[in-house]
Amino acid sequence: QSPRTRTRSTAATTAATTDADGDDKGGLFTGGPEPAQVLMTMMRDNTHRMTARNRKRTLRDAIYRVLQDVGRSLHIKEILARIKAKKLYVFRRMDGSVHTDLKRMRDCVSAACTQSPFFVRTAHGTYAIAKEPLNGSNTQDAVSTSPLRDAIYRVLQDAGGSLHVKEIFGRIRAKKLYVFRRRDGSVHTDLQRMRKAVNWACIASPFFVRTAYGRYAIAK
Description:
Strand content: 5-15%
Region (Disordered): 1-30
Helix content: 55-70%
Protein name: HTH HARE-type domain-containing protein
Number of helices: 9
Domain HTH HARE-type: 57-132, 146-220
Keywords: Transcription
Oligomer: single chain
Distance between the termini: 96 Å
CATH architecture of the domain at 59-133: Orthogonal Bundle
Radius of gyration: 33 Å
Structural class: mainly alpha
Order of helices and strands: HHHEHHEEHHEHHEE
Organism: Chloropicon primus
């Protein structure tokens, strides 16, 4: 018997055995992809659908919903409390475990409010939804809703040039353009904390530019 004939005979025998096995097992192997491959495809498709349907809410989404529901500005502590009360977001550590440090969670909320163009700071630690976050008018809205920034802008405009943070702070107090208050609403008396507030406002606002160490001017 020639090698070619033996090959054909072996192939025929293998095919017959395969058909017999398929009949005995309910026709599982009657052509098409392997069951394992079909199972993996189904799992992958289901995972894709679940991911698209159950997209996780981001911290920014949770903050936006809280501010939208209340309809006004809120302090970071209040925002965090409402997020936790309504279970809008789960704060997790880098290893995936649930966060329990309130200070770290407040820092996360503060960073999200500061970095997102959807929110505007109205006072120290207090944020609201920006009126038009997707165009250039958001910057103007941010300045108009911050009395401290307005006071700094007026001082620098009157000076006609750059001033040091200490000088800006001194002129604000001399002209009584802004009242520095604590979180409980009482008037601030800590000069260092007030100067830091002025410095932070100058750094955070795009309407001011640093000309030297601790000196700021109106951006052109």
